[in-house]
């Protein structure tokens, strides 16, 4: 017969007051209840993310690129520590404008990335290109994330005519190739900035806003699916019975449970945005002269790929580094928010049968608080 003690719910499958046994179903492969007991959801997400080596390294690399781009040539009226700017011409130091940076002997020189045929410093031009490409990427992530979340959340929660109208609008936008929409919007952004007499750097902000306004449909469909699933859950029904308004249910109960999906997909949108901005600038629909983006640097120096390849290499290296960093960070966030995506560990897999076969020692009267555990006698 079974004897139930305080701390166990009669008839429950080994459920205890601390909820450890009930939480085993949501554990990641190889995790034990002791590893997650007493931690909040934010602490668990942060712990899993920091245990993803590739994601942490990518975050460090991306942070380093952002700091280097911002501090080297400065932002607006704030000067940077680099002596050259992207527009200053000067004498060509090395033959053909070759990089002055070297390993044997170790040196940086005046123009570590080299110079173009007008004597402009390629390092300063690349840093300005990285600034503008990163700015477009972050603006696209913010705008597309907000619009996609609002459209998908409203459609998934209210259903009916609202869902039909919003989803048909989403379908119309999503069937048009994003490159075509972005090229058209980029051309419109450049013309609008010129008509208003704004500085050419304003094209970057307008371009980011317009690309973000065209990049939200995929996220909206995902958020709608999450809302359709969550609105039927018991905690939402309980909130309705308690008299909670629709706004409170959406922002306090449903939206926090979709943060994982939104965060992961926004990072993927940002990665796609920097590649899209590069393609637009390469085709001449993005950032315009005299400003530089990474894509425009590649476009302007493509004819010198054979004779002076360093003009092509450095912008390409930064594009690849930023895109890969964002992708790895997105993978790390996906693994952190969804413990089922946790990486396989051979050591934990070998230790799992041992832990499963080891009987749990019930807390006796001398344990913390003097509480007794649950024992079962034949």
Notes on the structure:
- Helices cover 59% and strands 2% of the residues.
- The chain is mostly helical and 378 residues long.
- The strands form 2 sheets. A two-stranded antiparallel ribbon has the order 1-4. Strands 2-3 form a two-stranded antiparallel ribbon.
- β2 (102-103) and β3 form a beta hairpin.
- The N and C termini lie close together (5 Å).
- The model is unreliable at 1-25 and 366-378 (pLDDT under 50).
Attribute tags:
378 residues, mainly alpha, 59% helix, disordered N terminus, disordered C terminus
* H and E string: EHHHEEHHHHHHHHHHHE
- Quaternary assembly: single chain
| Average pLDDT, all residues | 79
Strand content: under 5%
User: Over all CA atoms, what is the radius of gyration?
Assistant: 28 Å
The end-to-end span amounts to: 5 Å
User: What's the total number of strands?
Assistant: 4
Shape type: globular
Strand order in the sheet with the most strands: 1-4
Count of alpha and pi helical runs: 14
Structural class: mainly alpha
Low-confidence stretches: 1-25, 366-378
Largest sheet: 2 strands, antiparallel
